Known about the structure:
Blueprint: H1 3-28, H2 31-39, H3 43-53, H4 55-95, H5 100-133, H6 135-152, H7 154-170, H8 184-196, H9 202-213, H10 219-222, E1 224-225, E2 232-233, H11 238-247, E3 252-257, E4 259-268, H12 269-278, E5 295-298, H13 303-313, E6 317-321, E7 327-332, H14 333-341, E8 356-357, E9 363-366, H15 375-378, H16 389-397, E10 406-409, E11 412-420, E12 423-431, H17 432-435, H18 437-441
Parallel strand pairs: 2-3, 5-6
Antiparallel strand pairs: 1-7, 3-4, 6-7, 8-9, 9-12, 10-11, 11-12
Helix pairs in contact: 1-4, 1-5, 1-6, 2-3, 3-4, 3-6, 4-5, 4-6, 4-7, 5-6, 8-9, 11-12
Amino acid sequence: MTGFTWAVIGxxxxxxxxxxxxxxxxxxxxxxxxxxxxxxxxxLARILLPTLMEARRLDRYIAACQVGITVSSLVLGxxxxxxxxxxxxxxxxxxxxxxxVAAQSTSAVVVLIVLTTAQMILGExxxxxxxxxxxxxxxLLTVIPMRWSEKLLAWFIVILNGSGWLVLRALGMEPxxxxxxxxxxxxxxxxxxxxEGGHLKPxxxxxxxxxxxxxxRSARELMVPRTRVAAIDExxxxxxxxEAVSKLPYNRLPVYQGSIDHIVGLVRSKDIAAAALAGTGxxxxxxxxxxxxxxxxHESVSVxxxxxxxxxxRGAMAVVVDEFGGTSGIITTEDILTELLGEVxxxxxxxxxxxxxxxxxxxxxxxxxxxxxxxxxxxxxxxGDSDTVGGLxxxxxxxxxxxxxxxxxxxxxxxxEAVERHAVVSVLVRRAADESQPERLR
Length: 442
């Protein structure tokens, strides 16, 4: 056993480590980070970026890594047995008083254990850990050797990938190339891990989870209901529009014809103000020239889709319609931002009602509060066909509520505090567990 033998073994383990590091770095690195580095002029990032952006190229890249790992492992085992095994066999014969066959078998086992351990630690675990901790750096450092390997093994990769796809098709499965894709649940899990690792603050985690939840929330859940929509009748002309804009704290107001179920567009307060100042809009002037188009969406459309449509049409407001074509409410970009960031302050608008803890231990909940936000306040998950607290109360009572009505929802005592226009304004709740609290304190 010479220094040359150990040098060859070291080189083979290094090759194995290179391919392992390249594979794990390629599948874990963020494309956005590599794109940023490429835009900043990093030459290695420019070489790597096309591979990450195209699924089939990434598939070939991963295949080259796997072929490299397999070949280096097989060569390492064969070379180690031919060199180290042959050198150890005479030693076992002398020291262990073994026969030739037994000495050869023992040396083969020892070599296998030693090389496997060295390869697992130095060629697998260490490079994998480095690649997962520093994916950007490792992926850039390994991209040039991987380009050479891809060219050298191109014909072999084509044969292997083609054979693998044929086997998958024979099993009735459609082959798919490697892609950096994650479901929303997987992304939430990654966000939670980042929070636990100290990379995200609690507020940042909340915002990210709310953003991911936009695909699961409907326009109906975030809209302003029609009973609270401030709108303008087109037939009344420009005069009432000036009055409405001056009194209401809104930048945009829907415009309807006949009834609010037929919203035809919207007007912007600055357009009305500009026309009034320019003298082009008198009290008896028609409102039609100042009406802008308004987006209409069904109440079941997801919030992220609404946001996408608003961006496409450069709008900030949409009318939400029900299955019969009537107006359910309106939704604005501010409603969506509030869902993402929390209540957005506006000195011209009154703050929306929020849950309030009362001195007697009860909690006052707004009637328009979403059921999804109720759990921290009542200690249980409320659900039903309705989206809001008021809707659920009406659903459980089976009639229009009146102030003073009481009911029990999942072991939570609920009292209707105020009703306005047949809609629940607020309720008072106390968990069943809290009702016995005064008795325990006596």
